[in-house]
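Summary of Year 1 activities. Much of the first year was spent building the evaluation harness for sequence design. The harness presents a backbone, in tokenized form, and records the residue chosen at every position. We chose the following record to illustrate the format because it has been used consistently in internal testing since the harness was completed.
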């Protein structure tokens, strides 16, 4: 690419971090997608930090708007940092937020600080380490929202998907906190069904946001599941996601019970 921005010089080709192959794909004069091992991971609009291009991040943002209102600062933990797109957007739309991203790839964490105008510490801190171990290190009630967006070759590591990880996330959340998990699945959505069952066994309230085409088993894609011990207004959430550029479906209550099996 070799593109010069006001912030940094983007690399002309792939960069090997020791953990993965990363590259940047320009999709506009000042818009870029971070690609990790061939998969699109993060989107940055250098002129509009609030711009969330990926649908699953729009869904996570809608969930937080319903559970914590719009514009209010939050304490957010991101399990899986990558390009920190969601954290950057929340810093712009929720001034005063304090966020921490846990990233396994230390060199990637260094590069994204170099490539993108990320919020500085203490607004956004990036810590190198294992996301599951990090969950165990925080005191009870530390976070308003925990976002799990960690993948290894398109799969969520098993130790972040089990009941122990869900319980650890629940312990670190404030009373009204919400746990938001992102996964990628293929028909017949076995991973999503298992995720729903796991979270329903730990949290009092669970909802799922999904593209209708993915729900009908027509294609591969992202599924976002939110869990909390406080009620999640699925009707308000449905209104929000229907208003997105690509409307999505909210699955809750008995429909989610049948989906989880």
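For this record, the design step produced the sequence shown next.
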């Amino acid at each position: 690419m070799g593109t010069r921005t006001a912030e940094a010089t983007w690399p002309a080709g792939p960069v090997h971090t020791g953990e993965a192959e990363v590259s940047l794909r320009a999709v506009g004069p000042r818009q870029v997608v971070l690609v990790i091992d061939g998969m699109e991971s993060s989107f940055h609009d250098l002129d509009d930090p609030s711009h969330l291009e990926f649908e699953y991040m729009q869904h996570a943002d809608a969930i937080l708007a319903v559970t914590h209102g719009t514009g209010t600062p939050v304490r957010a933990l991101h399990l899986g940092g990558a390009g920190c797109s969601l954290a950057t957007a929340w810093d712009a739309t929720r001034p005063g937020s304090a966020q921490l991203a846990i990233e396994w790839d230390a060199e990637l964490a260094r590069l994204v600080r170099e490539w993108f105008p990320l919020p500085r510490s203490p607004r956004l801190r990036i810590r190198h380490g294992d996301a599951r171990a990090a969950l165990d290190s925080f005191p009870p009630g530390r976070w308003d929202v925990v976002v799990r967006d960690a993948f290894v070759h398109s799969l969520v590591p098993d130790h972040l998907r089990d009941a122990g990880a869900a319980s650890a996330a629940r312990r670190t959340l404030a009373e009204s906190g919400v746990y938001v998990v992102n996964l990628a699945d293929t028909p017949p959505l076995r991973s999503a069904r298992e995720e729903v069952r796991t979270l329903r066994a730990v949290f009092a309230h669970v909802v799922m946001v999904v593209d209708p085409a993915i729900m009908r088993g027509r294609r591969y894609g992202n599924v976002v599941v939110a869990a909390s011990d406080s009620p999640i207004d699925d009707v308000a959430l449905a209104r929000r996601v229907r208003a997105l550029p690509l409307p999505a479906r909210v699955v809750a209550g008995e429909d989610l019970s049948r989906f989880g099996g």
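The first strand starts at residue 15 and ends at 16. Quantitative recovery figures across the full test set are reported in Table 2.
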